[in-house]
Structure formats: structure tokens, C-alpha cells
Design goal:
heterodimer; A: 261 residues; mainly alpha; 13 helices; B: 265 residues; alpha/beta; 6-stranded mixed sheet; 4-stranded antiparallel sheet; 8 helices; 10 strands; globular
Amino acid sequence: MSYSRAANDLAGGLRAWRLWSRLAWHDIRGRYRRSVLGPFWLTLTMAAVAVSLGLLYSRVFGREIAQYLPYICAGLIVWDTVARLLDEGCRVFLGSAHLIQSMRLDYSVLLYRLLLDVAIVFLHQIVVLVAVLAWFGQPPTAATLLALPALALVLANGLWAALLLGLLCTRFRDVENIVRSVTRLAVFLTPVFWYVEDVGRDSGWVAWNPFYYLLELLRQPLLGRAPDPALWVAAAGAAAVGGGLAFLAFAHMRRRVVYWL
Amino acid sequence: MTADCFLELDDVHVDLPVLDAHQRSFKQSLLRLGGGRLADRGGGMVVRALQGVSLRLQAGDRVALVGFNGSGKTTLLRVMAGILEPMQGRVRSRGRVVALFDALLGIDPDLNAYDNIALRGALLGLSDAEIARELPEIERFTELGAYLRLPVRTYSKGMLMRLGFAISTAVRPDILLIDEVLAAGDIQFNRRAEARLAETLGSSGIAVICSHGPNLLRQFCTSGVYMEEGRVALSGALEPVLGRYTDLRAAGAPARMAPPLAAVR
């Protein structure tokens, strides 16, 4: 009973694509409005961060700028996507409390809205990487196309994580702070700024870091290289297991959400 | 419109949990789990908002929902709207349900009226074509003219009400649920709102209107439900129900609410 209702919610939400795409665009326009530079703001912020950090840390780590700047730029963009999915996933129900309390709504609409919002922000930021790669004369390769399925896998993992965190954060209000602390720390523990070779692929810092697999899966094709097959397996496996877990939680907690708000 | 729309509630119970700061904390809950049975569980409270409500509404029913504050009217409307799934009992319905609880739902103050109409229309499940079709009628009803192109944060409260109300009633619902929407408007607005409601409802469909104003209810409703302590205390023909409510109100009877209970876990 509760399983079929949860499945209906997820499917019904998907059918309401008009609604969540409009809501996601509304979110994006809200971002535009809050800044003088409008649509360019998201792009320019990423450009400033990537270029300044790239210039500085290429010297700290003694790396060739032509190699390091694209690396850190791609890393930062992917990391921002992952962190956004987690941080905003926490508020996916809380942030729309008024909506949930005032109308009958498939909750998954809010999840799809979040994914589309994150994907659109990603597209704004990817412009920076394209410019950086062009500057250093590194044209896209056939492997660049793999970025699309890789992005889809990152979003699929974001979907279950946001669902699970959204439910938890609605019930337990301190989880959001815990998640924020984790994502803030994880950016340094994950090879965004540094290279895996420097600590070794078998190092626990890399092997046991779930973020590493997602980051590397999407960063490699963005830089024109095909990701290691093991990365696809890991990301798809995580999506399957996490998806199953989140679905169970959703089936059991879905109707409680409105009571917890 | 579905001619054979219906709405049935069968022995519906709703307990609203009142969670305190400790129960809201993940860390505290983990500690309690680890602390074993001897640890103080600090059982929270629940409010018994609905206790065994059964109702059967069919096409053409116009129901006035009355009762004192805290008698469960809003909870009942939320159950009817499918917002709250009851913990016990069943709700079945056929037809498009539209809840008109907050005329300003989903209104973004920074957008102009047209963008808000599109946004709110999408929330109500209207397609772009349907919104375009209803637009002239919405424009006419709001009487906002050139203001329609300004951000709605420049509107007065009354203007906002007109806009929100016009969009909400643009959907053609089979089952319309209304909670005190007309409370904030002026008299002239109320008259026009009532006319629009009558038009929206047409002859078929189900309407449940919750209001403290007997005049509005008399104009629209044919039957009534009087709520007390989360139960249906009286239902049936409109006048006896309204009479019971207004008599009690006139007598200054204290509001009878179900007392909150300690949670049984």
C-alpha cells in the first residue's frame, strides 16, 4: 500500500514536468534577480573562484598551469553540483513547507525541481570550463560526450540523497547543520584541489571517500578523458542501492512529512 | 466536470504530533536510542484533531463547515484536499479537487501579475493553453489594469487578494474546498467574489465552505456540518446546523477543544 503510493508519487511527479520545470526556472530567475549581473552572475562567480584558485594553487603544488587550471575548474564545477544536491536536498521539503501544507502535491515534484535547478546551474558554470579549455587549446574529444551519462549518474545519486536527506531533515532539524559541516569539510578531503596520484589510488583517503567516485566520473569526461570503468560501476551501484534505500524510507515516511513540517 | 464526483470519509482519525526540541534533534534521538530503556524518553504530545469523522458528499452538495476555533475544521479540509493522509480511516474521492485555503499561495512578490498567474496556474495544474484561455477573465475580475505589469509587491493587500482569488477560481474544480478565503476583502470585493464563486461552482460539483459568516454560508450552502472536539457533532440541513452554531456563539459558550494527550508510543 505505502509502496505503491510512494511509487505513484514518484511517477505522478514525473508527469507533472510542466510544474517542476516552471518552478525550477522560477528558482533560477530568482537567482538572477538577486544580482546586478543577472544571468552572468553564476558564471562569473565560478570564473573568479576557479581562475584565482587555479593561479595560486598551481604554484603551491608546482603544477603546469595549462594542466592545473582546467583540472581545478572542472573539479570545482562538479563539486559545486554535488554539494548543491546535498545542501539543498536537506531543504527540499522544509523549503516548500507552505506549498505542501496548502495543496495536494506529489512530493517528488520538489525533487525533480531541485535536480533541474542544479542541472541548469551546472550549465551556467560549465561555460567557464569551455573557455579555459579553449584558452589552453585543448579541444573536446570523443570522450567528452561521456559527460552526459556521467552527469545523469551524478543527478541520479543526487536524487536519492536529496530524498533521504530531505526526509531526515524534516523530522530532525539538526541534520541540516551536520550535512553542511560534512560538505564543507569534504571539499578538502576529496581530490578537488589535489591529485589522486599524490596520495595513491589505494589510500584510504581516496578509496573510502564516496564523493571521489562521483567527482572523478564526471570530471574525467569534462577534461576529454574516458573515466575508468570501475567508476561507472561504483556510481551505478550507489544509485541502485541508495535508490532502493531512499525508496523504502520514502514509502514509510511520505505521509508523515506534512505532519512534521 | 465530472457529473458523478464524490467525496467519502470513513472513520477518519488524525493525531497531530507536537514535537519538542529534543525530539527534533537527531543527536538527542541517537542518544536516547543508545541510552536504552531507562533513559528518559520525554514523550511528546499529540493533538487529537479528528476523531472518527465519517462523511459522504455527492455531486451538487454545498456544505457549510462550522465550529469554533480548534474544533478540527481546517484539519478536516486538509484531509479532504488530500494534503493530510489520515493515520486511520479512509478517504475516497472522484473528480478534480481544488483547495482554496490561501488565496496568496505561491504568489512571488517580485514578479508581475502575469508571471504570477503563470506560476500559480502551473501549481493548480493548468496547462499554458488553459491559462491563456482564462487570462482575459482574470484580467477583468482583478480590475488591476496597468498594475498587472508591476511587481505585485507594489500592490495593496486588497489588490493581492483580488489577484490570488481570480487565479484560484480560474480552475474549474469538481470539488472545491474553501477555508475563510473571503475574510480579508472589503464588502464590494466580497460581493464580486461571491458572484464569481457561484459561477465557478455552477450546478454540479461539490463545495465545502468553512466560514464564520452565516450570511455567506446561507447564500451558497444547502447543508451543514458542525464540528466539536474533532468530531461531527451535527450534520444535515443547513438551518439547524447554523442555528446550533450561532446559538452557542451568541450564548458565549466556551470553545470546546479536544485536550492534547501524552503520546502513546
